[in-house]
């Protein structure tokens, strides 16, 4: 896979050398930009979907760790580059994928890129596997796709799901989660569990229904006191759970 990367290095000569090495010896790296300061580096991180950041440790007005502290929810891997080996412990504490010392050894650079590529490939495979609708729920768990990966929920924790255009709001006892998938996606994913589509906008966990109110379609009251309308066309399907 191709890795989108940036290089943050304040010394122009070092920046040029490492940039040339990356272009020449790391064909799977797409170097989308180079920065000479923490401020420039943060701007590149903000405006690009990155897999890898080559980061010089010592820079004017701060260091690499100051930069990373400003990106708490990062999904990219980091390769630290420095002339000093005493930063190794700090690099590990900041979850560095690799640690390169200057002058750059080409073999070590290639190893660093290969390592990050392997990690990213495995992450992508795992994400594709668990987010595949055909996989549905595994051992009573449901995976929710998110921008930086996925979240795993116990199916029994879900009270109901509500459609919101091409998004779905998933309601738990104490919080709501917004997911960029349609309600139909979750209807298919939860087909093997006790979830009923009671309305074009609602999918409910039938085990959480504590009361049914009669009417044209009627309504259900859930264990948390929430009342939801039942459409006339869905009434029969819902009631079949209570035969």
Automatic annotation (TrEMBL):
Originating species: Maribacter flavus
Residue numbers carrying 4-aspartylphosphate: 56
Official protein name in the record: LytTR family DNA-binding domain-containing protein
Keyword Phosphoprotein: yes
Domain of life where this protein originates: Bacteria
Keyword Zinc-finger: no
SMART domains: LytTR, REC
Keywords, in A-Z order: DNA-binding, Phosphoprotein
Database matches in InterPro entries: CheY-like_superfamily, LytR-like, LytTR_DNA-bd_dom, Sig_transdc_resp-reg_receiver
Residue stretches making up the Response regulatory domain: 4-117
Domain HTH LytTR-type: start-end pairs: 142-243
GO molecular function terms attached to this record: DNA binding; phosphorelay response regulator activity
